[in-house]
Amino acid sequence: MSVLTTADSSPTAAVDLGPAAALSCRECGERFPLSPIFACASCFGPLEIAYDLPSGDPEGLRRRIEAGPKSIWRYAPLLPVPADVASKPNLNPGFTPLVKADRLAAELGVTGPLYVKDDSGNPTHSFKDRVVAQALEAARAFGFTTLSCSSTGNLAGAVGAAAARAGLRSCVFIPHDLEQGKVVMAAVYGGQVVAIEGSYDDVNRFCSELIGDPLGEGWGFVNVNLRPYYAEGSKTLAFEICEQLGWQLPDQLVIPIASGSQLTKIDKGLKELIATGLVEEKPYRIFGAQAEGCSPVSQAFRAGHDVVRPVKPNTIAKSLAIGNPADGPYVLDIARRTGGAVADVTDEEIVSAIKLLARTEGIFTETAGGVTLGVARKLLAEGTLDPSLTTVVVNTGDGLKTLDAVAADTGPTATIRPTLDSFREAGLE
Amino acid sequence: MSVLTTADSSPTAAVDLGPAAALSCRECGERFPLSPIFACASCFGPLEIAYDLPSGDPEGLRRRIEAGPKSIWRYAPLLPVPADVASKPNLNPGFTPLVKADRLAAELGVTGPLYVKDDSGNPTHSFKDRVVAQALEAARAFGFTTLSCSSTGNLAGAVGAAAARAGLRSCVFIPHDLEQGKVVMAAVYGGQVVAIEGSYDDVNRFCSELIGDPLGEGWGFVNVNLRPYYAEGSKTLAFEICEQLGWQLPDQLVIPIASGSQLTKIDKGLKELIATGLVEEKPYRIFGAQAEGCSPVSQAFRAGHDVVRPVKPNTIAKSLAIGNPADGPYVLDIARRTGGAVADVTDEEIVSAIKLLARTEGIFTETAGGVTLGVARKLLAEGTLDPSLTTVVVNTGDGLKTLDAVAADTGPTATIRPTLDSFREAGLE
Questions:
Q1: What digits encode the pLDDT tens for the residues B206-253?
Q2: Chain A interface, mutation test: which of B400, B401, B419, most A Cβ atoms within 10 Å?
Q3: Do B215 and A190 touch (CB under 8 A)?
Q4: Residue A293 is assigned to a structural domain of this protein
Q5: How far is CA A223 from CA A37, A128, A206, in A?
Q6: Which residue range(s) make up the domain with B237?
């Protein structure tokens, strides 16, 4: 297990990752120096970043953030990156729109303010650019020369693009049956793309093997050996949502669950905003969203279990199709602690939600966004989400990458000859 | 011709479109009140907006802009929109990244700063969101209830999305042979999409007929009867580029040509920045880019003609496939007046440029972006573009919408079983 728990012989002493002070075990709390490891040497628990966060002057910190770049790097004082990160070649993702969704709210019977955090505006059109940007800095700090990942699609594109901008080699691993848009997007940046005959969970297991093999030397797997750094990127969603609400916590958040990492890190981000005094503490509730065809966390929530039993995914929401979600137990804990819930929707409900969001707000989301909005709609109908509170639904991706989900019945209303008579005959006016 | 030249009986007296003062003929200079017309009653020349621009306090104006929203609405004092535009339901496009493209520059032998203005970050991932946002305000001002357009694809999606957000009906017209991504994106917002058996020029002619017919009453065609307002949106590209360069003019701009409107309005925007004192006057050169398979302006430029002879388009760059470009003569004039040029590239060169941009900067552009970068590369090789100056290449769209252009040879490097042996056999390490 030494590959999991011990730093390379690379010069990690010189590592400058800003306020990141150490790695800390989420289970037993043991601390380790910053290095490319992801599991605790004592208890094999997952590691996360511990910080020396700025304190004592929240007003000054807020001004510094507001004067920063229009990207996640405005939050550099709260991230595991060097202070000069914005000047390095990277995709500068983030600071995507928080859209006030009044027409959607009216249709859902929501009376409180409803927002969609629209991450389709990121450089490769998914929230993955946020996490990859952190992993890239860690890869540079640890001297890795190849950027890699296991991916359900969005991540492969984000890694390929980030590596291209940074001038690093990339090699990404995907299941062999992905949507064409995601495959082309993974490959177009010129890196290596390896399709694996198997599910995402097979791809993930393979990458864990590769990382322990000499073949994987010098490789930074953004979501394996760089995972503690990578995962912190999701906090920036929490930071932006609160800043865009005028430095306030929302009352309710609805977040998709793949590995569960995004949801747990959004919660971590909210807690760090409270700890630094950037927002005032108040209760908030976190809701997790899955597709029925891959709903191990939702099933565990309903059954009152603390553990998550792996499933074999079968859903159109391929970017969420992780049958064995690493952060599942933490998600259950957060949903229960905050008074939230975890729920799931069918593929039909996913497609219906995609169209609802497009029709009411002009936002074309991918299947994952359909899952999240579909679950929000379901929880509202059940009375689990309070329609009178400030609610944020997180849209993590872009409909152009999952055209197949809607293409079958989304085409021209009519095909005509270029004449008024032909138009009249079509009866559209 | 009354439909072309006379305002409706709608209450145009109450029209508040900010600093827009009147419509003015680009040929004879005659002025008309703000209304949904697009051709001069005296000489049938195209109309454009005349402004009462802010003057006398450029520093104050600059501060006001910099404190504005992170969208095109920061430039509301220079656009035909009401002052409270940002509070109305629209897609808030713009303020997209100006990417310093150092790796691309190195590969092209450019020594001066090279930038890509990356408009794929707009809400529907093309620059069209900028122009539609202006037309939407005009439609609201003139009381239109249906938003419409003729489109080569990107515009249809932008109109559908903007109408959905604003709660207007939409009906858009497209050629029947568009890329699937663009068709789905046009239709997913729930408006009507009419496919026309013919080329874009046929679609355009049909829309002009429809607008003169009772069938088209109450319809705002963003690029026909609302064209003078619509076209102004392209100025925001000029505004953003200069602000992002620290309120300076670039030396050279390379811009794609479809109708030619974008290029002429970027030039107009630069001149307005000079007129208001927001930037210091200095020479700049404007270069236009076309695909060889639809290069009427480039052919006229090379031949030294002042008029543009229409062509029948045949190129993979469908979003630029306008065989009879309305603003062609103005483009020729601007390229010659500023010391620029107009050139074209083959479909092969387009694909090669798409891949070059993806590989060096992690930006996946559509075919139109391949045209623009391809022409920039060609003009550099010829010595027509000066490699030592500040150059901006405008990327107007997103590669996900034209997957077919690269899909044939952009896929997995290898397909393997999820084992180290299978990976080793693939010989990729």
A1: 999 999 899 989 999 999 999 999 999 999 999 999 999 999 999 999
A2: B400
A3: no
A4: yes
A5: 11, 11, 13
A6: 98-125+232-407
Residues A327/A206, Cβ–Cβ less than 8 Å: no
Q: Which of A165, A213, A358 sits opposite B164 (nearest CB)?
A: A358
The structure tokens 């009249």 sit at A424
Under 8 Å CB-to-CB from B330, ≥6 apart: which residues? Answer: B26, B260, B264
Res. A78 pLDDT band, cuts 50 70 90: very high
In angstroms, the CA B73 to CA B135 distance is 14
- pLDDT tens digit string along A404-427? 899 988 999 999 999 999 999 998
Q: Do A423 and B194 touch (CB under 8 A)?
A: yes
Partners of residue A416 in chain B, C-beta under 8 Å: 194-197
| Record: contact B161-A398, CB cut-off 8 A | no
| β-pair partners for A344 | A290
Q: Give the C-alpha separation, A397 to A130, whole Å.
A: 12
With beta carbons under 8 A apart, name residues in chain A contacting B420.
Answer: 206, 209-210, 213, 215
B354 chain-A contacts, CB cut-off 8 A: 188
Q: Does some domain include residue A358? A: yes
* Cα A215–chain centre separation: 29
pLDDT at A13: 53
Strand B414-416 versus strand B146-150 pairing type:
unpaired
User: Is B203 within 8 Å of A418 when comparing Cβ atoms?
Assistant: yes
Provide the angle, in degrees to the nearest 10, between the axes of the packed helices A180-187 and A154-166. Answer: 20
What is chain A's Cα-based Rg?
Answer: 21
The verdict on a CB contact (< 8 Å) between A419 and B174 is no
Contact B56, B46 (CB under 8 A): no
Nearest residue on chain A to B169, alpha-carbon basis? A359
Q: Bridge partners of B290?
A: B344
The verdict on a CB contact (< 8 Å) between A362 and B160 is: yes
Counted domains in chain B: 1
A-chain residues near B426 (CB < 8 A)? 194
What's the CA angle centered on B170, arms B169 and B175, to 5 degrees? 165
Write the ipTM: 0.94
Tell me if B188 and A354 make a contact (CB, 8 A cut-off).
yes
pLDDT mean across residues, chain B: 94
CB of A237 within 8 A of CB of A127? yes
Are B362 and A419 within 8 A, CB to CB?
no
Both structure tokens of B389: 């100056």
Q: Using an 8 Å CB-CB cutoff, list chain A residues near B205.
A: 418
Asked if A27 and A39 touch (Cβ cutoff 8 Å), the reply is no
Query: Rounded to whole angstroms, how far apart are CA atoms A241 and B422?
Result: 44
For residue A244, which residues of chain B lie inside 8 Å, CB to CB?
none
Nearest by CB to A196, which of B185, B189, B418?
B418
B16 and B77 Cβ atoms separated by less than 8 Å: no
Q: Residue A365 domain-assigned?
A: yes
The whole-angstrom distance between B262's CA and the closest CA on chain A is 22
CA–CA dist A421, B317 (Å, integer): 31
- Residues A308-361 have pLDDT tens digits of 999 999 999 999 999 999 999 999 999 999 999 999 999 999 999 999 999 999
User: Given a cut of 60, is residue B199 above it in pLDDT?
Assistant: yes
Identify whether A235 is part of a domain: yes
Nearest CA in chain B to A206: B418
Is A297:A309 a contact under the CB 8 Å cutoff? no
* Whether B225 contacts B36, CB under 8 Å: yes
Beta bridge partners of A115: A100, A392
With a CB cutoff of 8 Å and minimum separation 6, the contacts of B14 are: none
d(CA B195, nearest CA chain A) in Å? 4
CATH code (residue A255): 3.40.50.1100
The torsion of the CA quartet A154, A157, A163, A168, rounded to 10 degrees, works out to: 110
